[in-house]
Design brief:
Elements (H helix, E strand, L loop, with lengths): L7 E2 L6 E2 L5 E3 L2 E5 L6 E4 L6 H8 L11 H7 L8 E6 L5 H9 L1 E6 L3 H9 L6 E2 L3 H7 L5 E7 L8 H10 L1 E12 L19 E2 L2 H10 L2 E10 L2 H18 L8 H4 L4 H9 L4 H30 L3 E11 L2
Parallel strand pairs: 6-7, 6-9, 7-8, 9-10
Antiparallel strand pairs: 1-2, 3-4, 4-5, 5-11, 10-13, 12-13
Bound molecules: zinc ion.
Length: 322
């Protein structure tokens, strides 16, 4: 196929995007949809459940703090505040436990077996199902919810239209959805290694998200963009200083962005190989440098605020239109 005849359909609005790719990464290319402004990678083939378990494993060891998206929802005055809630990709269940404490009756889906076991046993969350959302809809066609939440899930989807149809199938009339995605407009001083395929396939901003949800039959009630925090500022200063250090280590070869391209056995050994003494020394140096970025971040923060630089989380609450 010649590149001149390349016709790529946007996965969110199905219009054809003809522009040249914005970026290439390995065998993937990133396109912008001129109609709805979504950025999406081609090709998109989502890995199986065990891949996510491998890449995101270890989350069962401790109860993670709530993410900003969770907090935005729990404090959102437009959210219903009670009712039956389903959280897709609930992880260790930290958000579900907090939502239950607020008055919601909670259920969750989670494919990572260790995280699901933690949610059930340690947080006493009885209904955590190891199903994808399409499997859930098939298995429980009569199970309907007042709220369906999916935090940091939509950016992973190969077929977002199909995903949102499954979400709608779980909702009662006038039901709510709440979600968060990484904000494409966040302040970055280097590539975000997690934000590449096959981990993430879609890059959203507030406008693209609104367009997508509205076209899918939702009324958007609130959108919140996290401002860049002091911690984010420290991370960006650290990232901009990283290059020199990374050249001196096996660094990039073992970075998440490369590991997630590997076949499972190679990824497994890369994730579990003990670092050499030299790598350990460089890691320690990296941590010291990261800590040293904090005073610089505090000093730079008034400028960051003034520039209105954005943080990672883009939150949205929406409701099914009548
Ligand atoms: Zn589009």
């Amino acid at each position: 196929m010649s590149s001149a005849k390349l016709q790529i359909a946007c996965p969110a609005c199905a219009k054809v995007a003809l522009d040249a790719p914005l970026e290439r990464y390995g065998s993937y290319a990133l396109f912008r949809c001129p109609a709805c402004d979504l950025y999406f990678w081609e090709p998109r083939v989502m890995p199986d459940a065990r891949w996510y378990e491998q890449m995101y494993g270890g989350r069962d060891e401790k109860l993670l703090p709530l993410e900003p998206g969770h907090k935005y929802f729990l404090s959102d005055p437009l959210a219903p505040g009670r009712g039956d809630l389903l959280d897709i990709g609930c992880g260790t269940g930290n958000f579900l436990a907090a939502a239950r404490a607020e008055g919601y009756t909670v259920s969750g889906t989670e494919l990572d077996r260790n995280a699901a076991a933690f949610a059930k046993e340690r947080l006493d969350l009885p209904r955590i199902l190891g199903l994808t959302i399409s499997e859930f809809v098939q298995r429980y066609p009569d199970d309907k919810f007042d709220v369906v939440t999916f935090f940091e899930v939509l950016e992973h989807q190969a077929a977002p239209l199909e995903f949102i149809q499954h979400v709608k199938a779980c909702l009662r009339p006038r039901g709510y959805i709440a979600l968060s995605v990484p904000n494409r407009e966040r302040w970055l001083t280097g590539p975000d290694v997690f934000d590449y395929p096959p981990n993430h396939f879609l890059r959203w901003n507030a406008a693209a998200l609104r367009t997508f949800l509205h076209a899918s039959g939702f009324e958007v009630l609130s959108v919140r963009e996290q401002p860049a925090s002091v911690a984010h500022t420290a991370q960006m200063i650290n990232m901009s200083l990283r290059t020199g250090l990374m050249h001196n280590t096996a660094g990039d070869a073992s970075s998440f962005r490369n590991i997630m391209q590997m076949a499972p056995p190679d990824a497994d050994s890369a994730l579990h190989t003990a670092p050499t003494p030299r790598q350990r020394a460089m890691q320690l140096l990296g941590r010291v440098k990261h800590a040293a970025c904090y005073p610089a971040a505090v000093a730079a923060y008034p400028y960051v605020r003034m520039r209105r630089l954005k943080g990672a989380y883009l939150y949205c609450l929406a409701r099914l239109m009548p």
